[in-house]
Design brief:
This protein is an all-alpha fold. It has 2 domains: 80 residues, Orthogonal Bundle (Endonuclease Iii, domain 2); 102 residues, Endonuclease III, domain 1 (Orthogonal Bundle), CATH 1.10.340.30. The two termini are 19 Å apart.
Amino acid sequence: MAFTKKEITQMLDALRDRYPEAGCALVHQNTYQLLISVVLSAQTTDKSVNKVTGELFAKYPSPADLAEADQQDVIDIIKTIGMYKTKSRNIIALAGELVEKHGGQVPEDYDELVKLPGVGRKTANVVLAVGFGHQRIAVDTHVFRLANRIGLVKEKDVLKTELGLMKVLPEDRWTEAHHSLIFHGRNCCTARNPKCGECPINGLCEKVGVE
């Protein structure tokens, strides 16, 4: 059974009240740093990324600097995170394309972002939402799992989940919903042992997929 607009609002309000600090956990000072950090965060935690980006951005403060980097030097900095060989290659190539094709600036355009090495749909949406203030729903593992478990959507893949959420959630709260669901997934609605007794939306959740 689909949620009403009133129930959706109640759900978003409850999550916002529980997680008023919900937002991008990646430490960054500009869109270049944000983009690189999001690429590095694939299949690893934001906390682990934050541990390496301070040194990375100190050594390579601009796309032009990173574009000229030696891959082994980058690996030495980011080797504590997963897929560091692929990620080091991607961020160097990405920086090169920013310099060559975009004047050293991160493009404020979805189609241009996803052309960059290592940048997929989720990364592009995060950059547009956090870096440029667009309303976007970036579907990571938490958002995918929670959206389907709660019953906001009933989809089998990430793209359909994103498109489904765009239909049921008010557009002016897409980015907020993305961050709230991530925080809820980390702190309460965990994958294996969700804390349903502590959940602020327990009365609305359909508990799809929960035994």
